[in-house]
Amino acid sequence: MTSAPRGTRSDGQRSRGAILAAATALASVDGLSGLTIGRLAARAGMSKSGLYAHFGSKEELQLAAIAEAEAVFEREVLAPAREQPAGVRRICAQTDAYLDYLERRVFPGGCFFAATSAELGGHEGAVGDRLRALNAAALRDLVEQLRIARDAEEIDATSDVEQLAFEIDALMLAAHSAFLLFSDGADLDRARQGVLARLGRNRGLES
């Protein structure tokens, strides 16, 4: 059995990457429900048959777009935060990286996951299940970082870490909505200050 030429495989990977970049950008603005083979073909300047060679169904395309957005979020937000020690410094680094990701408009519609989770979080099926799983995992990680911070006496020993995680997440979602509407960096700064306040810290005293 002969294998495909390396150049052909590489071209296919580049093509898929370009398609997924277009798909995540489109979905961040118009939602995953609006992400169809036809609309994406028009956006990417490809034929529908060319796209069907990569994705056999709308659901497969949606799940691939989510996976691509995960990779972007990992690179832009999570990986930089993990360079900091667990606890308060990592929480501050992650919230700063998230707000910077919004400000730089990595996706034109703001945070891919904030947008698509609000759209499809209540829907049944593989796409809704994946979004719920990702959001639940993110909250669990934040709770764990807060628990580490509490055990290290970086935050108040009586802190309810589940409640605190909910409030920090809510501040990030509020920042997303406000910045998307008004493009005002002051709203992002208010979210930063809010996180520090909830952690019992002042600006400049994150560590």
General description of the model:
With 207 residues, this protein is mainly α. It has a domain at 59-198: Orthogonal Bundle (Tetracycline Repressor, domain 2). The protein is built from 9 helices and no strands. It has helices at residues 6-30, 37-44, 48-52, 58-81, 88-103, 112-120, 126-151, 161-182, 185-198. Helix 1 (6-30) packs across helix 6 (112-120). The longest helix has 26 residues, at 126-151. The chain is elongated, with a radius of gyration of 19 Å. The chain starts with 5 loop residues before the first helix and ends in a 9-residue tail after the last helix. 29% of the residues are buried. Mean pLDDT is 89; it is low at 1-9 and 203-207.
Brief summary:
With 207 residues, this protein is mainly alpha-helical. It has a domain at 59-198: Tetracycline Repressor, domain 2 (Orthogonal Bundle). The chain has helices at residues 6-30, 37-44, 48-52, 58-81, 88-103, 112-120, 126-151, 161-182, 185-198.
Secondary structure layout plus pairing:
Blueprint: H1 6-30, H2 37-44, H3 48-52, H4 58-81, H5 88-103, H6 112-120, H7 126-151, H8 161-182, H9 185-198
Helix pairs in contact: 1-4, 1-6, 4-5, 4-7, 5-8, 5-9, 6-7, 7-8, 8-9
**Averaging pLDDT over every residue, what do you get?**
89
Tell me what portion of residues adopts beta-strand conformation.
under 5%
Low-confidence stretches: 1-9, 203-207
Count of strand segments = 0
Task: Give short descriptive properties of this protein.
Tetracycline Repressor, domain 2; 0% strand; disordered C terminus; disordered N terminus; 207 residues
